[in-house]
Amino acid sequence: MATLIGSILVFLIVIMLHELGHFTIAKLVGIKVDEFSIGMGPEIFQTQKGETKYSLRILPIGGYVAMDGEDEYSENPRSFNNVSVLKKMAVVVAGVIMNFLLAIIAFFFIASFIGYNTNALGQIVENSPAQYAELKVGDEILSVNNQPTKIWEAVATNISMAKENENITLEVKRGNEILKKEIKPDYKDGVASIGIGPKSEKSFLSSIKYGFNKTVFTIGSVFTTLKLLFQGNVSVDMFAGPVGVIQIIGQQTARGPIYLLNILGIISANLAVMNLLPIPALDGGKLVFLLIESITGKKVSDEIEGRLSFIGFGLLMTLMLYITVFGDLKRIFNW
């Protein structure tokens, strides 16, 4: 039951704020909004306020903002199709921005409540590669192999991903001095380590900075994973589909509210990035169509946009089904 409640809560928050972004900007630029809906499928609640219908639907797997003139031509001067391209772009990108903000806020609350691990060293293990390289407690790790490391997660991830038989290059700040350190790591089960631990910190202002940096790191991790996927270095079945995400949320819910906040931030940031991909049926695809319109001065025909969006939606559903069957279910039932 905790898994179900936690999953519904996370999905509803992420979806509601995403759609609220679209809705708010649409209202601000004067577009007529016919319906604001959270969830899909049959209605379980609806109310009318002014020109807009507000509804809650039974399946917490999506939502939408129905704007006049979005899917079909309208002569209403307040319709989506009759406002400027910049206003359309603002409406489309607003949902993604809200998801980025949600991630920042979630990570900020975590840091505010329990503190966070900085990129400064709080521990050096004896007889470790770090000790032999003369690293010291208080050293701030600025980069690992030329990859910026503003938070501890970035330090740990970049070190663990180091290739065997290759040294790790650290850029270290010690007081006012910037040092370069070449370290040969230890390996256990193919994972590199150099024997260091982080320094923890807890303050309001630094928590805001951490929330932003953790969101940037999460976004970067998504792009890195996509890059590895296209390079053939990771398999699609390593991704989590709807079933896998629900399982992960359930596991984090059982561990406590802080872990639930963390997965909320991660999912929100991931959703923002995926929505920006230039695939028809996603916000990124809509932005591409609007960019073409801004350059050529001509709107992509509704027929072409509709067909491409249908194809894009079909490909996304096929991919989701594949990940669910050969990723989620395979892991659960150990096929």
From TrEMBL:
GO terms (molecular function) for this protein are:
metal ion binding; metalloendopeptidase activity
Give all residue intervals belonging to the PDZ domain.
107-176
Top class in the EC scheme? hydrolase
Bilayer disposition of the protein: Multi-pass membrane protein
| UniProt cofactor(s) | Zn(2+)
Query: What is the first-listed, main subcellular location in coarse terms?
Result: membrane
Q: From the UniProt record, give one GO term of the biological process aspect.
A: proteolysis
Q: Which InterPro entries match?
A: PDZ, PDZ_6, PDZ_sf, Pept_M50_Zn, Peptidase_M50
Question: What is one GO cellular-component annotation here?
Answer: membrane
**Enzyme Commission number(s) of this protein:** 3.4.24.-
The Swiss-Prot or TrEMBL record describes its family as follows:
Belongs to the peptidase M50B family.
The protein's name is Zinc metalloprotease
Provide the species name: Anaerosphaera aminiphila DSM 21120
